């Protein structure tokens, strides 16, 4: 089978290679899956560069999220051959993977591969962060990198709960798109001062920040919080840590906390987990929440896909299909 792997960490264009590998062999509790589609997430890139919370075991395939079809069943026939499933695994940029049967999620009827392969990480992260934030109708949420796949999902989900959403962009072309999704305030941080706009437009400031960027923008977002506000950090797109202002934390009684989807899901009981997936799938199938696809590429054209992924102003996911 074909697989995209790396033998050392570094820039994806430099270290990723297409190689032939033996078919993986499943254990009694595992299912062999023929992978159909995988989307490229920022976490994939961080993993390849050696900057993620999981250390690669070389040689390692890239990618964490995908959808595919059951090729060989586990010993209990939890999922029948031919069943379409959604899953996460370390290394999905390959033609076949084995995954423990209890970690698979059946694809709802009518959901395309392009949607199914991105129905886990970003939608569940947005759902989980909104749930954990405690935000209610009328409260203000600030999302950095508002035009990201996560940002657009979080805008839509929060708006449907009556939460007021402000978000940051760096390109004016994205403003009308995000306003159309429900954002009440869109701030171009290349042209406007974030704290100044927040102070002028929002009485008292922001209740909660979802920060995916870090660095200076993260610090400015933190300064936009009202007293007793919370910043939830879940990404580091700038590759720079947030320079925290100790005075702000002390005198405004601010809280900064991390959010990692894996940890949050593990904290849920079965009922809460099923509710989360049911809510996400209902959103996606009813198109109350929409996801965008910029382009699809065959797995062996991953280098071209990475070039497309890095393009400025991209508004949709890049999908690797097979």
TrEMBL record:
SMART domains per UniProt: PKS_ER (SM00829)
Record organism: Belliella alkalica
Protein name: Zinc-dependent alcohol dehydrogenase family protein
Keywords: NADP, Oxidoreductase
Xref: PANTHER family: QUINONE OXIDOREDUCTASE PIG3-RELATED, ZN2+-BINDING DEHYDROGENASE
Pfam families (alphabetical): ADH_N, ADH_zinc_N
UniProt cross-references to InterPro entries, sorted A to Z: ADH-like_C (IPR013149), ADH-like_N (IPR013154), ER (IPR020843), GroES-like_sf (IPR011032), NAD(P)-bd_dom_sf (IPR036291)
All residue ranges annotated as the Enoyl reductase (ER) domain in the record: 11-320
């Amino acid at each position: 089978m074909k697989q995209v792997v790396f033998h050392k960490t570094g820039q994806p264009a430099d270290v990723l290679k297409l190689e032939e590998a033996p078919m993986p062999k499943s254990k009694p509790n595992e299912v062999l899956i023929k992978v159909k589609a995988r989307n490229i997430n920022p976490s994939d890139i961080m993993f390849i560069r050696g900057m993620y919370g999981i250390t690669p075991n070389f040689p390692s395939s890239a990618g964490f999220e995908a959808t595919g079809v059951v090729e060989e069943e586990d010993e209990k026939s939890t999922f029948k051959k031919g069943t379409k499933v959604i899953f996460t695994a370390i290394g999905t940029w390959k033609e076949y993977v084995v995954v423990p049967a209890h970690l698979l999620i059946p694809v709802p009827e009518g959901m395309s591969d392009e949607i199914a392969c991105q129905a886990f990480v970003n939608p569940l992260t947005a759902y989980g962060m909104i749930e954990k934030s405690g935000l209610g109708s009328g409260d203000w949420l600030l999302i950095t990198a508002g035009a990201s796949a996560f940002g657009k999902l979080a805008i839509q989900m929060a708006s449907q709960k009556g939460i007021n959403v402000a978000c940051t962009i760096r390109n004016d072309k994205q403003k009308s798109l995000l306003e159309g999704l429900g954002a009440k305030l869109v701030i171009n941080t290349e042209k406007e001062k974030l704290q100044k706009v927040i102070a002028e437009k929002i009485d008292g400031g922001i209740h909660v920040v979802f920060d995916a960027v870090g660095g200076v923008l993260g610090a400015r977002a933190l300064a936009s919080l009202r007293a007793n506000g919370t910043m939830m950090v879940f990404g580091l797109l700038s590759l720079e840590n947030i320079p925290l202002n100790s005075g702000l934390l002390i005198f405004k009684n601010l809280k900064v906390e991390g959010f990692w989807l894996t940890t949050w899901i593990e904290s849920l009981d079965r009922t809460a987990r099923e509710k989360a997936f049911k809510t996400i799938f209902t959103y996606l199938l009813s198109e109350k929440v929409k996801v965008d696809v910029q382009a699809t590429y065959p797995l062996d054209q991953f280098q071209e896909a990475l070039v497309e992924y890095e393009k400025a102003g991209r508004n949709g996911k890049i999908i690797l299909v097979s």
